[in-house]
Amino acid sequence: MPVTARRTPLSRAVNAESSTDRPTGRTLAKHRRSSRPGTPRAAAAVLSVGLAVGGGAALSLTTTAAPASASTTAMTAAQQRGHTSIPSRPLLRLGDSGPTVKYVQKALHLGPDGYFGSSTVRVLKKFQASWGLKATGTTDKKTWGRLTWAAKHKVLYGNHGASSGTTTFRAKVLREAAKLKGTPYRYGGTTTRGFDCSGYTGYVYKYAGKKLPRTARQQYAATKHISRSAAKPGDLVFFRNGGGGVYHVGIYAGGNMLWHASKPGRPVAKAKIWTSSIAFGRV
User: pLDDT value at position 130?
Assistant: First the structure.
């Protein structure tokens, strides 16, 4: 005997399945009110498909929604400092991490792993001490200034290639040079009553422990001539005219700066080096 399959429409199957359980009237309103405001919908979606199977029974397929992806974990304070822009000169310290830490490590000639560990602190302290900075092991503003200059000029330590005695001498030179700030200019002057350029450098070097000849030209002839990249704060910087002669001298302060007695009306001060026609000398 032939079997006749009867297809039940999907809408009728769904209505038939749910009509007996559907609340009405006031009950319907209560049923629709959510007991947990703002709660996400259930993660399961039910798909009821009416098929003509054994008399038109409805087949229910249930699929579970994929879980939401985890949100990005917020950076810690140490990571935020390590990701701060280099121009802002952040105060980096032990435990910080990020690309800015890598920049500091490269400037210190370290393998840049991006983590401010004990080795970075140790080398940074050595770097700071060599340039006469307070050896804190953190990147304060003055340390950033020296780091960026060192990275640009490919120089690391202030005492690189020199003995500790020489380093101490240069530190004394810089201290003595700063003490005389504000002393008036005086042509031919060699005392604190007033200095000319070579009188000032000769006085500073004398009180730091070494004697220089009287004039700028004589001082240039008495020093070991070095390149700008090799020059360290405390060395002498000489200014030359078009013919190669020396007409001025000062004390190199690092970072394109010098201490000098410039000209009448201007006292001893720290200033920018204003020309590229210069040479460096070391005693």
Answer: 83
CA distance to 32, 88, 247, per residue, from 233 (Å):
80, 25, 21
- Does the pTM of the predicted model rise above 0.85? no
Alpha helices in 154-251 (DSSP H): 164-179, 197-208, 216-221
Known catalytic residue at 83: no
Phi, psi angle pair for 217, to nearest 5°: -65, -40
Question: Please, what is the angle between helix 118-130 and helix 99-107, to 10°?
Answer: 50
Number of domains in the chain: 3
Quote the tokens at residue 246: 């020396």
* Lookup: tokens for 51: 């098929």
Annotation marks residue 197 as catalytic: yes
Residue 37 forms part of a structural domain: no
Give the Cα-Cα-Cα angle 154, 127, 91 (nearest 5 degrees).
Answer: 100
Q: Confirm whether 109 is a catalytic residue.
A: no
Rounded distance between C-alpha atoms, residue 251 and residue 260, angstroms? 6
Q: Domain range holding 268?
A: 164-282
Q: Are 107 and 123 in contact (CB under 8 A)?
A: no
Residue 95, sorted as left (phi over 0), alpha (psi -120 to 50) or beta, turns out to be: left
Beta bridge partners of 195: 185, 190
Query: Do 58 and 83 lie in a common domain?
Result: no
Extract the tokens encoding 28: 């319907």
The pLDDT > 70 percentage for the chain reads: 70
CATH of the domain at 243: 3.90.1720.10
Q: What is the pLDDT of residues 134-155, one digit of tens each?
A: 899 999 999 999 898 877 766 7
pLDDT of 211? 95
Question: 140, 117, 115, 136: which is closest to 125 by C-alpha?
Answer: 136
Q: How far apart are CA 233 and CA 174, in angstroms?
A: 7
Residue 123 shares a structural domain with residue 232: no
